[in-house]
Amino acid sequence: MLNALQFGEEYSDIELEYKPERFAWRISLYAKVIFMEECGLRLLHVSLIVSNIEKAALFYEGVLGLMPDKRPDLGFEGLFYKLGEGIQLHLLCVENPYQHCKQPTHGGRDRHIALAVSDIKLMQRRLEKVNIDYTLSQSGRAALFCHDEDGNVIELCETKEASAWEKRGSTLCCQTV
Fold first, then answer.
1. Distance in angstroms (rounded) separating the CA atoms of residues 112 and 140
2. What is the C-alpha to C-alpha distance for residues 86 and 88, in angstroms, rounded to an integer?
3. Tens of pLDDT along 107-119?
4. 173 in a domain, yes or no?
5. Which residues are the active-site residues?
């Protein structure tokens, strides 16, 4: 059984430990910073499966206010949206392998993506205006969870960074419904 792994002389003080009871690797914060910097590790995109591109566009563009981005021909329908500096949301119109899975009632206990917004109350009003149900974060944060037409969970979190992001040209939470 592998308990620790050394990364050679250059990284002799870095240990990677496997925890079989959690099926997870535990790595020191120092090692994480080194790997992220040297490997250039960062988020590029998140993909969600949708069944109808037009309905998905109404939600992601019309309700959330996301801006479409260029998408190459991949042999199936889909949409790309800008989420920030070099980060995209990919909507894939393909057969959903999870369609018969039971989802938790609260979105925070399901796989989801989280998007920053500058005004959570404004987003609540927008969702209510188009009859989209949501639940508030159980942690007490200024956040909510809603679903798109295909059951994908979207978390919207109020952050100060969202306001600055909007000033640089984002439209999330800026367009009117």
1. 18
2. 7
3. 887 889 999 999 9
4. no
5. 155
